[in-house]
Amino acid sequence: MSAPAGLPPRPAGAAAAVYPGGPGASREAAAAQGGAPCYQNGPVQGQMQFPSGYGSHPPNYSVPSGHYSEVPNKAAASHLDNQYRASYYPTYYSAPAQNVMTPSVGTNVLNTQESQQLYNKTPPHTVGSAEGPIQGAIPPASYLHTNAQQSYSAFGNLYSTSVSSSVASQGFPLDSGHCTMPTTPVVSGAMYPSVSYPAAAGSVYGKAFTSQSLTAVGQFKETNTFSSWSISVPHSLQQHVPMGYNSTLSTMSSAQSVQGNLSRNLTGSAAKVNNQINTGVQYGGYVNNQASSAPAPLSSSSDDEEEDEEDEEAAIDSSSTTSSASPVLNNYDALEGGGYPEARSVTSSPVPAPSVPQTSKASKPFGYGYPTLQPGYQNAAPPTPVQPSNPGHHPGLQHYPQQYSGVNQLSSSLGGLSLQHSQQPESLRPVNLTQDRNILPVSSVPAPVPNLNSDLRKLNCSPDSFRCTLTNVPQTQALLNKAKLPLGLLLHPFRDLTQLPVITSSTIVRCRSCRTYINPFVSFIDQRRWKCNLCYRVNDVPEEFMYNPLTRSYGEPHKRPEVQNSTVEFIASSDYMLRPPQPAVYLFVLDVSHNAVEAGYLTIVCQSLLENLDKLPGDSRTRIGFITFDSTVQFYNLQEGLSQPQMLIVSDIDDIFLPTPDSLLVNLHESKELIKDLLNALPNMFTNTRETHSALGPALQAAFKLMSPTGGRISVFQTQLPSLGAGLLHSREDPNQRSSTKVVQHLGPATDFYKKLALDCSGQQTAVDLFLLSSQYSDLASLACISKYSAGCIYYYPSFHRSHNPTQAEKLQKDLKRYLTRKIGFEAVMRIRCTKGLSIHTFHGNFFVRSTDLLSLANVNPDAGFAVQMSIEESLTDTSLVCFQTALLYTSSKGERRIRVHTLCLPVVSSLADVYAGADVQAVVCLLANMAVDRSVSSSLADARDALVNAVVDSLAAYMSAASNLQQSMLIAPNSLKLFPLYILALLKQKAFRTGTSTRLDDRVYAMCQMKSQPLVHLMKMIHPNLYRIDRLIDESTIHVNDRVVPQPPLQKLSAEKLTREGAFFMDCGSIFYIWIGKNCDNNFIKDVLGYPNYASVPQKMTQLPEMDALSSERTRSFISWLRDGRPLSPVLQVIKDENPAKTDFLQHLIEDRTEAAFSYYEFLLNIQQQICK
Amino acid sequence: FCILSYCTIFPYLVFQIITLSDLECDYINARSCCSKLNKWVVPEVIGHAVVTVLMLISLHWFIFLLNLPVATWNIYRYIMVPSGNMGVFDPTEIHNRGQLKSHMKEAMIKLGFHLLCFFMYLYSMILALIND
User: Alpha carbon of A593 to those of A795, A836, A885, B77: distances in Å?
Assistant: First the structure.
C-alpha cells in the first residue's frame, strides 16, 4: 500500500480495485472504501496531460550521451543530437510527398528499400554480387549527397546527419560510413530485378534470415552493417515524419523490430568495438533514443508480451550476463528489453556468441532470434501494428516493415497496395463496397494503432489484451452519437503472457484520489510529483519509487518498470488481502445418471484428470474433492489413511447436508493414491445404473456448502435436464419452432435458482464451470446462469457420445486438458478505470458487477474475455489523451496475491472523419455482438437482428453524409470499416442470431454465451472463420517458426465460388478445423497429405493427418500446427468430403453465400444501400 | 385514513432513494442493495393499490384518477419481471444499461408524486375536519 500514513480518511486497504471481497463483511468494507472517487482536477488541466515528444527530449539526451561515452566517439553522438534537433522541425513539417515527387530520388529510395527485401530473400546472392557492378551503387550515394545538401526529406536528412557526424567526429574511420553505404546499394541493385515489388505474397523476413544464419557466418560482414544501416533509416523516417513522408513505413512495430535489430547489431559490434559497425551502432543507438524519447529511453518498455521477463531481478540477471561483454550492452539490453525479447535473450545467451567472429555475432543472433519470435508473434498481434492514419503507403517501402513484423502486418500491405497518394489517411480511403469485391486482406486483420506519437504508441498496451472500438475517442457524446458507432473496450486481461514485468515492491504507487496505479501515461511534474492521468490529481512520488531496481540508479522515477510498461503485475502486500490467500481448491461434480453413463463421458473425464493430476495449478495446499449425483447425491471420503475411497450417499435432496464436513475435500498430495483409485473406479461404478433422474440443484447446493469456507472452482458435468429437487427445469423448447423466422422464445433463464446460487458462490469466491454434454434439450439458458454470474466458463458438447461422436469426444479431451492445466486466479476482482469524463455503463462477460466499476470474479481464467460499453459524460475538450486502466487483483494458484494492471492510452479527436479513421472494426463487431445478445434476451431476437443491421446502416449513412463529396448512389465505407457489413452479415448468420435455419435452442444459447465470454481473437474466428487453400502450399510466402517452415496461404473469401473441385481447403473456425476436399482434388495431394490413394478411399470420419514424408504433407502439417499453437484450445480437425454429413457444418460457415433464409453478401450490401437511401 | 397509509409509503421511498444512492456511491454492494429493495416492492405495490381502491370507495374520483396510473405502473413493473430475475431490482443487471440511473429517476418521480399527494390529502383532511 502506498504511503499508508499519508492516506487520509481511507484505511490502507482502500486500495479500491483490489478487494478480495471475501465473505460478506469484507465486501461491505470494500464497497465502503472502494470507489467514491472525489476527483480533484490537477492544476494544469488544460495542458496536455502527457508531454508529447519534443517536450521531454532534453532529459533523454542525457541518457544517450551516457551510452555514447562508452563508445569511442562521444563527440559524434552529441553532434548527431544537434543535427537532429536542428533538422527536426523542418523535416517534420516538410511537405508530405516530396520524396515521391522527385523521380530519381524516389526510385532510389525504392531501390534501397527493395534491397532489403530482396536481400532477405536470397542471401547467397548478396555475397556473390557484392562486387557486382550494379547501378544501385552510385545513384543512392549521389542521392544521399543531394539530400544532405537539400536536407529535404527525412530520409536524406537523417542519413546526411549520420554521414556528416561520422566525418566530423573523426571518432572512427570514414570508410566505415562508406563501407556501409556501398554495400547496401550494391545489394539492392543486384537484387532489384529478381523481386516483384508489390510482393503481395509477402516474402517473409524470418525465413530469409534463418537460412542466412544457418548458411554461413562469414557473409555477415556486409549484411550486418547493412542491416544496421538500412534498418535505422526507415525507423528514423518514421520517427521524424510520422505524417508527412509519403513512403514512410506504416507500422510502428517495425520500429520496434528495428530497435531489436539495432540492439543486436549494437551488442555485437560494441563487444568488439569494430569501427565499421560502430557507425551502425552509433547511428542505431541514436535512432533508438529518439524512438523511446518521451518518458524514458532506458529500460524495458514492453507492450510486447513475448518478453520473458520474470521480474526485475530476472531482468537484471539476464542483462548482467550480457554486460559481461561491455557496459553498453547492458544499457541497450535494458532499453531493448521491452522491444524485442529475443534480442535480449539471444544476445544475453552466451551460446551463439562465442563461436562466431565478432562481426557476425551481431547478425547471428539476428537470424537466430527472429524465428523464435514468431510463434508468439503470430497469435499475439504485434504490439502496435499498422498505423491506420498513415498517409498513403508506398508499396516498396511498405514491405519492409511487414517482413519484420510477420503475418499480421501483411494484411496492411493490401490496404496499402492500392497506392493512395492522397492526403487522406489510409483508413479513411473510401471503399466502394458494392464494386470492390476483394476486401478481405491476405492475412488476418490487424488491430488499428491509435494515432499517438510514437513514444506513447510504443508504450501502449497490446491490442490483444485491451482494445477500444474507437481508437480515436470522440470529444463529446454528441460526436459519438453522430458517428453511430459504439464506444467500448474489449478486454482479455488474464491472457497467457510469455513475458510480463513483475514488480515486487512494498509500495505500490497509486493516485491518492482515484486509486489509479502509476502507469506509463502519467506525467512527472518534477522529480517528486506526478500527475494522475485519470483524475489529474498531483501526487507525491514516494521515496522508495525514486530508486530504480532495473538500472540500480536513484532519482529516476520515470524509468521504473511501472512507468515503462503498460502491462505490469504487482505482487501485492497484505494490504490487499482480507484473508490469507486461499489454496487452490477443485471440486468435481459429476452426473452419473443412466444418460451420463450411456454417453460415456466419465471415462474421458477421469482419464484426463488422472493424466493431469500433477499438472493442476496449485501448491502444497491444493485440495480436491468429488461429488457424483443422479437422483441422490454421493460424496467421497478420501481422507488420508483410508484403504479405499468411501462413498457416502445422501438421499435427502430437499434438505441437503454434508455427511462429513472435513474429509470430502482433501489435500491432493496427501491423498493422491486414494484419488487415483477413485478415478480409476468411477467410470465402472455406475455401469448398471437405472437411475434416469438428475438432481443437479441439490448437488450444486452441496458443492456450494462444501466450498464456501475456502472458495475455489467447481466443475460440473451435466448430461440432461435437471429433473429433481431444487432448480428442476422443464423442457421449454418446441422443436417445431427451431427454424421459425419469427419469435425465438426462452432465451432467458426459467428460474432464478441458478442465478441466486451463482451469486452465493460468487460471494464465497467459488466459481462454477459447466460442462454440458447432452443430446437433448437441457435448458442451457437457465443452467448457464450458474456460470455466468460466478465468473465460470461454459462448455457445451451437443449430442455427445464417446463412441458415436468421436469428434466431440476428442474435443472434450482436448478442452479438458487445457481446462485442467491452464492458469487460474482465485478470489479475483477487476476494476476498470477511465479518464474523468468517460463512464462505463454496461459490462459484458461472466462475472458479477459488485459496484459501479468493480467486477467480482471468483475465478479468472486466461480464456475469459470481457467487454464494456462506455459513454462520454463530460466533454473531453480539455484533454488530448484518454486512458483506460484495468486492474485485476487475484490470488495465484501458488497462493500469491497479485495485481495485473493494463493501461491503454488513446487520443481524443474532434472531427467525425478522425473518429471513422480510428474505428476498429473487429472490436466494434464484437461489442455489437455482445450488445445484440443482451438485446435478444431482454427484448427479442428480431430486435437484436434489426439492431445489428441498423448499426451498419446508420454508421455508413453517417459516414456518407459526413463525406459529402461522395456520390450518394454508391455504398461507400471508409477503409477502416470496409469489413463492417461483412462481419455483421457473418454475425447474422451465426447460430446465435440466425433465423429460418433450424437451430436448436441450446446451440443458440451456447453461441450467445460464447459471444459474451470469449476474448476478441477467438470470437472473431468464430464469427468470420479463415479459409485457406492448402493443396498448393508453396514456399514463396513462408515464415519460420522454430526452424519450421510455415507456409502462409492467402485468406480466401468465405464463398462457395472459391471452393473449386480441384482444390483442398482449410477452414479455421477457432474451435474446429475443417479440411474440405474437392472431388477432383489432385491425387498427389490426397496421397501425400491424407495418406490415401484416391478421393474415394478417404474415410468419412477422419480427424488426423498422417505423418507422411512428402513435402506437401510437411507443409500442411506445419501450417496447421502453427495455427494450433496460436490458441489455448487445440481445435479438432475434421476432414470433409463432398458427400459427408458434416458438410453442412462446413458450408454454413460460408457466410458470403446465399442460403434459403439469408442474404448473400452482395444482396446484403444492396439491402443496406436501399436502407441508407431511404 | 389516507394519510395513515401514506405514512408507510413515504419512509419506503426515502429508504429506496437512500439505498440506490448508496449503491451509486459504492457504499454497499449490489446484492445486498437489491435484496433490501426487493423486500419492499410487494408492500409498496399493495399499499398503493389499497390507497387507490380506498379512494374509489370513498368516491374521491379526482384523487383516484391521479393515483391510478402510478398504481398501474407499479403493478406492471412487478408483473413484467422476467422469470429468471430476482425481482424488480436484479443485482446482476442493475449496473448495466443505466438501470441504476433509471431506478433512481423513477424513485425521484414517485417521491415527488407522493409528496404532492401527501399535501393534497393533508389539505383535504383539514378541510374535512373543518367541515365537521
Answer: 19, 55, 47, 41
The CA-CA-CA angle for residues A709, A843, A33, to 5°, reads 55
Helix (H, G, I), strand (E, B) or coil at A1060: coil
pTM above 0.90, yes or no: no
Q: How far apart are CA A412 and CA A390, in angstroms?
A: 11
Answer for the pair A529, A556: CB distance below 8 angstroms, yes or no: no
All residues of chain A having their beta carbon less than 8 Å from the beta carbon of residue B86 are 752, 755-756
pLDDT in tens, A1106-1137: 777 777 777 788 788 888 776 767 788 888 87
- Find out whether B91 and A789 touch, Cβ atoms under 8 Å: no
Q: Which three cell numbers stand for residue A933?
A: 445478445
Rounded distance between C-alpha atoms, residue A780 and residue A782, angstroms: 5
Residues of A in Cβ contact (< 8 Å) with B20: none
Of the candidates A253, A252, A245, A255, the one whose C-alpha atom is nearest the C-alpha of residue A392 is: A245
Give the domain ranges of chain B: 1-131
Interface of A with B in 234-263 (CB under 8 A): none
Question: Which residues in chain B touch residue A848, judged by CB atoms under 8 angstroms apart?
Answer: 30-31, 91-92
CB–CB of A851 and B84 under 8 A? no
When pLDDT is cut at 50, 70 and 90, the band that residue A417 belongs to is very low
Task: Give the Cα separation of A991 and A114 in Å (integer).
Answer: 47
Contact at 8 Å (CB) between A398 and A237?
no
Contacts of A1112 by beta carbon, 8 Å cutoff, 6+ apart:
A1031, A1033, A1084, A1085, A1088, A1089
Per-residue pLDDT of A67-83, as tens digits, reads 333 333 333 333 434 44
CB-facing half-sphere around the CA of A552: CA atoms within 13 A:
8
Q: What is the pLDDT of residues A922-944, one digit of tens each?
A: 899 999 999 998 888 888 888 88
Output A628 or B89, whichever has higher pLDDT: A628
Q: How far is CA A212 from CA A74, A124, A125, A189, A364, in A?
A: 33, 8, 11, 19, 9
The DSSP 8-state label assigned to residue A1155 in this structure reads -
Q: Which of A855-864, A971-980, B90-99 is predicted with the least confidence, judged by mean pLDDT?
A: B90-99
Q: How many CA atoms lie within 13 A of A1023 on its CB side?
A: 32
In A972-1049 the beta strands, taken as DSSP E runs, fall at 972-974, 1026-1029, 1038-1041, 1044-1047
End-to-end CA distance of chain B: 16
Torsion angle, CA of B14/B20/B21/B24, rounded to 10 degrees?
A: 180
Strand, coil or helix: A633: strand
Q: Which residue of A has its CA nearest to B101?
A: A841
- Residue A730, chain B, CB below 8 Å: the answer is no
Most confident of the ranges A43-47, A86-90, A296-300, A595-599:
A595-599
pLDDT greater at residue B60 or residue A819: A819
Q: Distances from the Cα of A31 to the Cαs of A8, A392, A600, A845, B25, in angstroms? A: 17, 51, 46, 21, 9
**Is the backbone of residue A316 left (phi > 0), alpha (psi -120 to 50) or beta?**
alpha
Q: Which residues does residue A1052 pair with via DSSP β-bridges, in sequence order?
A: A1027
Chain A nearest C-alpha distance from B98 (Å): 6
Closest to A903 in 3D by CA, of A953, A954, A959, A835: A835
A376 with A394: CB under 8 angstroms? no
Higher pLDDT, B31 or A966: B31
C-alpha cell at A429: 480511403
- Helix or strand (DSSP H, E) at A548: strand A547-548
Q: Are A823 and A496 in contact (CB under 8 A)?
A: yes
**Strand A712-718 versus strand A666-667 pairing type:** unpaired
Taking only Cα atoms into account, the Rg of chain B, rounded to an integer number of angstroms, comes to 16
